[in-house]
Amino acid sequence: MALGLRLRTKATLWLLALVALLCIPLTLNGLRSLHLTITTSFAQWQSMSQAVPPLTNNNMTYPRQAPSTLSAAKAREYIDRLHAIRNIAFSPHYPFMRVHNLQNVDRLVQYLARAEAGERLPTPRVILSSWHFHPTCYEEDSSNGEVQWMRPILELMQEEEIFIIYASFPDKTFHKDFKLMGNDLVTHTWIDDEHLIWCFQDPKHCVQSPQNPEGVPLWKMFAFTFWGSLPRSGKWLPPPTGDVSWSFNPLGREWNLVPYQMPEGHFFIGYHYQRCQALEYIPFAERSDQIVILAKKSEYLHDPQLFVDPASFYIRLKNVTGDKIITNAILEEGYPIPEGLSSVGLLPSAEYDKQLANSKALLGIGRPQISPTPYASLCRGVPVILPYRSDTGCPARPGPSDYCGFYEDMHQHGPAAAIGEPYIYTVDVGAPVEEIVEIVKRAASTPILPFEPEEMKIAAVRRRLLDYFEIDWEEYGRVKGFGEEGHGLALPPWLVEWSRRNPDPTLNS
Length: 509
Prior knowledge:
The protein is of the alpha/beta class. The chain has 15 helices and 14 strands. β12, α10 (about 375-380) and β13 form a beta-alpha-beta unit.
């Protein structure tokens, strides 16, 4: 189709050149005019024939947006709008977030002022976010996986002049601020998975509809989700079978923004582990003879679902390796620290980093699932051991097309396990205990240098983030059915039932 269009365009331009030849008198000025006409025609054809290549992410191909330049008049319109709503918008449930919001609004206004002054700038990239972990990214003591994922992305946004505003969903700040800022100014929304479910089912106040023309277009609604939409999910009501593909946005899993390369086209933003440079590398020979257990709660130490019986395992591991086996788990009632473990307790992030850097290995025991801690270990030159269950059919190193690496009853961390030895070791929990202990011993006695996977380096995350903003999501949404009458875009029935049991809080406010 594209080739046929280019050939027709070329023929049209040749015809225009011929008409010009017949119509322009062959004087000196006429020849100059003819030369200019033909040269311009061929330049236009050449420009059209060299189509911008599409973008790819996680084995999916996307159309690229046509380049755009923000006009001075439009920049002034946006500036006036932002000034007019400054005192009635940008005030989410968390008061301290208004400070961060206004800082981003001021940066956006400065950007717009440059365009108004004549600088050639593209249309600004503006996100309205309701992701509930967004505010915690600004709290110094927050270190959960979701925060570690988003913090470097926020920093990249600032460097790349991408503007993000937080608006809480349950109090309808999100609904209000989207309409105040305007559909033409807000280019994308990053929202909780449940917010997307609720918004899609609220054509009166949230999603764009004939009743709500100023609402959020479906193609602008992205679920910023650490877990994606797994065929088997513990949070949502289960699909009828474990192999059903689904998404929070009915347009598809491409509207799930995720930290790992997940199956079936989830959009892979990825993340960069920021604390790798916080400490100097400790040579292997200078470290303490200790192995750290990956577990924040003492309950995990007693969970037989994925790992072996703790009653004797840790004693045996300590005796065979000769290493001290450390746990930082919080002591919970009914879940004592098993014999053989040395309890250090939960440490501040900086202290935990020092402990990890001074260890011989990090041993996963099944939970927590897909934690960033294995990457923290690798970047300090500390190998990791992760358990999986071969009796479920899950391989030791699942590929990016295999969901089993994301199910805690099958594998602790499929994406990390794919790295392989000598960085990541895997143990089958169904294997003899002697075999498991020997693998742990081998990992703890094999030195490695600090390692960071290519896809987690800041340059790779930056490239994927910028690619995301270059995609023509509206056009891609049309390909997936957006705007087509009778297409039947709908949530899967189990999500509709989930939302019936967990109703949208904004409908009662």
